[in-house]
Specification:
Blueprint (H helix, E strand, L loop, with lengths): L2 E8 L3 H16 L6 E8 L2 E8 L2 H22 L6
Helix pairs in contact: 1-2
Length: 83
C-alpha cells in the first residue's frame, strides 16, 4: 500500500460510536475503489478507522469522504440525546 491513515474517534458514548460505525459500514465493506482497503472497529471507548490506498491522491479523497460523513452525522446528532 502506498498510503495509510488512521482515524481515531474517542467518546464515552458507545451509541454515538456505533452510529458512526454503522453510517460508514457500507463504504467499509465495498470501498469506492479496488485500490483501497478500509477497516474499522470499536475498541473500548474508541472507533478506529484504518484507510489504506495504493495512491496517495485516492487516500486523500477517501479520507475526505469519511470525514465528511462523520462531520455530517455529528451535526445531525448535535441536538439529539444520542450525543
Amino acid at each position: 500500500m502506498e498510503g495509510r491513515l488512521k482515524i481515531v474517534l474517542e467518546s464515552s458514548n458507545y451509541r454515538l460510536l456505533k452510529a458512526i460505525y454503522n453510517a460508514l459500514y457500507p463504504e467499509t465493506i465495498q470501498p469506492p475503489s479496488t485500490e483501497c482497503r478500509i477497516n474499522q472497529e470499536i475498541m473500548d471507548s474508541k472507533l478506529v478507522i484504518l484507510i489504506e490506498c495504493n495512491r496517495i491522491n485516492l487516500l486523500r479523497a477517501v479520507t475526505n469522504s469519511y470525514l465528511g460523513v462523520i462531520s455530517s452525522l455529528l451535526e445531525s446528532l448535535e441536538g439529539m440525546s444520542i450525543e
